[in-house]
Design goal:
single chain, alpha+beta, 5-stranded antiparallel β-sheet, 23 helices
Length: 490
């Protein structure tokens, strides 16, 4: 697990002030509270850690809870294999939590959306440690029943110094070793088309496209009606930017099985690249008819509708992408409005009560009341980034585009170390407001700041802005760049 790296990188990120307007941050105490390694059937591994720190800042003493993550797979970029906080544009940034007082159990469970003790069904808890002494030291409380529990309970009392030697897992976490094991299995049984399919899909993930295609040809030779093989082949062609071939194989997959929403999403992406925007819209819509909670499809259709100047339809899709997600909010106090009201009445000057009730109200689609609570949270504590993000998103889905713009302008001024996110969001809002010159101004500012997670979206929305002012050559260039950077991250 390399806990020395975890400690070093976490402290560096805290002291950089990336997610706060606080300055002169100096960590004076640091503890690891819990960690886990999860895996799925591919196999794919992800390491998570929950960290606690105490710091001196220009705003006085602060306590900080941080979710750190790394991907130990040897196929991942080196920086992904190292411990880092992580930010995705479809989740609230609760990877860094700041407190004016030492956090208690209830504070962690109410506010930390990203670190979860309960693992979803498509992942397996491979191993973990609850660091009981550290937890008690940090919170003054014992770690309650929501902590990790699994077949690895014998490790529950382990501490950071007894964690994994990373090299001992080199076979498990190296995809090439997994491919080698599949190859050996094929050697033992050359007619095992299912293993060819598994190897093709793993090679696809490793970007070994030509080798993957050869495996898919084997699958189709044994099973010419295998829709999944044609779907994978189409996805590979999309990644290789062979768009006509991608559509050809995706068409074939749909002709065999027309009930897989992923195939329609892939073909919709390919059609959008060719300029068949109406065809892409139909495919994204069909994917959502098949799976009404398909968040990525809502996001793709929201962007496409924005490109087509269907502003209201795009806003509705953006809202549905939020409301259709399986909520990660597990309210420790229960989903009763009276409990949030009581919390605010007891501590009317603490911002987090209004923030939590705002989340609750937004889940219930009471958007006007949620907006008021987020505004109150910012009034009481303007230094917490996630308050602005929830407010801006809620203003957008309520149709208050001017309000969303005003919120982002305040955030740009408040969070000088994290401008790329807000420039990016401002560019999107300006596209919604059809102020395309302003959108181009802010998106170019975002483009100038390196960030691999946001860059595909930045280029896509630049393409929308240029397209809508008639600069089609620039638009095509930016849409092409979106594809090169990785459409799925758009």
């Amino acid at each position: 697990m390399n806990f020395e790296e975890l400690r070093t990188n976490c402290i560096q990120e805290i002291e950089s002030g990336k997610y706060t307007s606080l300055n002169n941050i100096k960590v004076t105490d640091f503890r690891i509270l819990a960690w886990s390694r999860i895996k799925d059937e591919r196999p794919w591994y992800v390491d998570n850690a929950l960290c606690w720190a105490k710091a001196e800042t220009d705003g006085g003493k602060k306590w900080i809870i941080v979710h750190m993550v790394k991907n130990p797979m040897k196929s991942e970029p080196l920086k992904e294999q190292r411990w880092h906080s992580y930010f995705v544009d479809d989740a609230a940034n609760t990877w860094f939590l700041y407190f004016d007082d030492p956090p208690q159990n209830v504070d962690i469970y109410d506010k930390l959306r990203s670190f979860k003790f309960t693992i979803s069904d498509d992942w397996e808890l491979y191993d973990y440690a609850n660091l009981y002494e550290n937890w008690k030291y940090a919170t003054g409380s014992i770690l309650p029943s929501v902590a990790f529990h699994s077949k690895a309970d014998s490790n529950a009392d382990s501490n950071a110094n007894s964690a994994y030697d990373e090299d001992s897992f080199s076979v498990d976490i190296d995809p090439q070793s997994y491919i080698d094991r599949l190859t050996e299995k094929i050697r033992e049984n050359p007619d095992d088309w299912e293993t060819y399919l598994k190897r093709a899909q793993e090679r696809y993930r490793m970007k070994q496209y030509e080798e993957s295609i050869e495996d898919l040809k084997k699958v189709i030779a044994y099973r010419p009606d295998n829709a999944e093989a044609y779907q994978s082949w189409g996805g590979i062609c999309l990644a290789m930017r062979k768009i006509d071939k991608a559509i050809k194989y995706l068409d074939k997959s749909i002709s065999l099985i027309n009930s897989d929403p992923l195939t329609f999403v892939l073909r919709g992406q390919a059609r959008e690249i060719t300029g068949s925007l109406d065809g892409a819209l139909k495919d994204f819509t069909r994917a959502l008819e098949l799976n009404k909670t398909y968040v990525f499809a809502y996001k793709l259709r929201a962007d496409l509708r924005l490109r087509l100047k269907d502003i209201n339809g795009s806003i509705q899709d953006f809202a549905d992408s939020i409301f259709s997600k399986k909520t990660t909010i597990q309210f420790f106090l229960g989903e009763q409005a009276e409990l949030y009201d009581f919390r605010i009445k007891k501590n009317p000057l603490k911002s987090d009560g209004y923030y939590l009730r705002g989340q609750f109200l937004r889940e219930k689609k009471e958007l006007k009341r949620a907006i008021k609570d987020f505004e109150k949270a910012i009034e009481l504590d303007p230094n917490i980034r996630v308050y602005y993000q929830f407010l801006e998103e809620t203003q957008l889905i309520s149709g208050d585009l001017d309000g969303a713009k005003e919120t982002i302008l305040k955030a740009i001024e408040q969070f000088k170390n994290d401008k790329i996110w807000w420039y990016h969001r401002m560019g999107i809002i300006e596209n919604y407001r059809t102020d395309y010159s302003s959108a181009i101004f802010y998106l170019n500012k975002a483009k100038a700041i390196k960030n691999e997670y946001l860059r595909p979206s930045v280029y896509y929305h630049l393409g929308i802005a240029y397209e809508n002012i008639g600069k089609n050559t620039l638009a095509k260039k930016d849409f092409k760049k979106t594809l090169e950077l990785g459409w799925s991250d758009k």
